[in-house]
Structure formats: C-alpha cells, structure tokens
Design brief:
Blueprint lengths: L7 E7 L4 E4 L12 E5 L6 E2 L6 E3 L4 E10 L4 E4 L3 E7 L15 E6 L24 E5 L1 H6 L8
Antiparallel strand pairs: 1-2, 1-10, 2-7, 3-6, 3-10, 4-5, 6-7, 8-9
Length: 153
C-alpha cells in the first residue's frame, strides 16, 4: 500500500447489521486492526456556478469500520464505535416526575442500519452499506472522528 494513496476496494457482502465482507485481504495489504471508511459512491462533483470550474466534491461517509479478520483475498470488517447516551432521568428525561430522578445512561453501538425497526441480519435495502460500495483505509484518529449516516442503538 502506497503512503500517498490509501488502499481502496469495495464491499463484497453485507453480513449483518454490524459486519461486512471487503474484497481485499492480506495479499493486498489489508490486515486485522486496520480501519476503513465506507464511502457513498453517489458523491457528486460540484461545479462553480460563476466559472464553470469543477470544484470537486465532499465524500459522504456511510460508516467507519475496523477490520477484525483478514484472509488472503477478503476481510471481515465490523462497526466498533460506541456512544454513552442518557435515556432517562434528570432534566433531559421525559415527564415532570422524572425530572429529579437520577439520570440513566446506556452505551449505544454504531450499526449499519438506517431503519430503527430493522431486525438482524438486515437486508441490503435496510443497510446504509450496499454491494460494491467503495472503501479506503484510514488512520485510527480519522476512524474515531469521522461523521457517518448510520444509526446508533
């Protein structure tokens, strides 16, 4: 893998609401522990309305995943980010009586789901990630700080 160009490939299969198979593996330089971003392939170039110049486009990131297993030709990547959210109690809780209750927190895990009613495993139609979506390898810092379109639960 070149230092200037990240390794790129595509999603070969959506396995579950947290896992995908990537079409690259150790033969290509993709190893367990690496991070990948899944990119919306429909990202559009923006044209300057005044000059007609192509300004480029912004990548729309669908998900950030960590490679958990890698073979010669393919890799299994999984969501890994968690978020602690208040679900009740305190001033953020629902209802007046709950206002003075001790806040209750839960840890939510990022999923690949767009629809909160979707079950496990999810179909490709319900997934933020589709067959042939491109990916590229990113650093751990980029993986933690990248905003995505996926659901946390």
């Amino acid at each position: 893998m070149s230092d200037s160009e990240p390794l790129r490939g595509v999603v070969a299969r959506v396995v579950s609401d947290r896992e995908v198979i990537l079409n690259k593996g150790t033969d290509h330089g993709l190893d367990a522990g690496e991070y990948v971003i899944i990119i919306d392939p429909d990202t559009q170039s923006i044209t300057d309305p005044e000059t007609g110049e192509n300004l480029g486009g912004l990548k729309r990131i669908k998900a950030v995943l960590r490679v958990v297993e890698s073979t010669a030709k393919l890799s299994l990547a999984k969501t890994f980010r968690t978020r602690r959210v208040r679900v009740s109690g305190g001033l953020g809780g629902a209802g007046f009586g709950n206002m003075f209750a001790e806040p209750k927190y839960e840890t939510r895990v990022e999923t690949l789901q767009l629809d909160p009613q979707a079950g496990l495993p999810i179909s490709e139609e319900d997934s933020a990630i589709s067959l042939n979506d491109p990916f590229e390898v990113v650093s751990a810092e980029e993986a933690e700080d990248t905003r995505t379109v996926t659901l946390w639960r």
